[in-house]
């Protein structure tokens, strides 16, 4: 183990202590460390304890976003790299109120929570196991297990790495609205076209 790794990683801003002092959970007796995906009826706040200082990394994703899909195997491997932390993921399209609350305007979006309070946002465009490990280490001072790598199982789940062909309701609504507007404009134009010759005919009589 290298001496003072936190100081070495955070040398640019001179921060020796971790930015977020996470209470690490007791992993005694636990043999499986995996990501939990919230379903549509589950509330994130039920999984975050406001009275504790334990830390949870939360991913906001959508199953039809290709960036979410490419991130999935890397995020799936994180619970094994950091067994003392918790990892959650939620479909942002099913939890729109949470997305608004935490300023999730684009997916994938990763937030580090301490208790129920968001402490840091992962802003790196290169979303790999290594950059995620660096982010967690720089924020918490907790080192990743060195023997963890992305496996075939991580590509299979729990977070899907294959795009789901979902219905983009906003796009569908936009197309229908545009089609309706074009139809309405066409009918209005035709009625004016028919109206003008009719008016001329009445004046001629």
Describe, in plain words, how this protein is organized in 3D:
This protein has 205 residues and is of the alpha/beta class. Helices cover 41% and strands 13% of the residues. Strands 1-3-2-4-5 form a five-stranded mixed beta sheet, with helices on one face. The model is unreliable at 1-15 (pLDDT under 50).
**Overall 3D shape:** elongated
Separation, N- and C-terminal Cα atoms: 102 Å
What's the CATH topology label of the domain at 36-156?
Glutaredoxin
Radius of gyration: 26 Å
CATH class of the domain at 36-156: Alpha Beta
Main sheet summary: 5 strands, mixed
Query: H/E element string?
Result: HEHEHEHEEHHH
Helix percent band:
40-55%
pLDDT < 50 runs, ≥5 residues? 1-15
What is the CATH homologous superfamily assignment of the domain at 36-156? Glutaredoxin
Beta-strand content bin: 5-15%
CATH architecture descriptor name of the domain at 36-156: 3-Layer(aba) Sandwich
The class by helix and strand makeup works out as alpha/beta
Number of separate helices = 7
Biggest sheet strand order reads 1-3-2-4-5
Count the E strands.
Answer: 5
Average pLDDT, rounded to a whole number, is 80
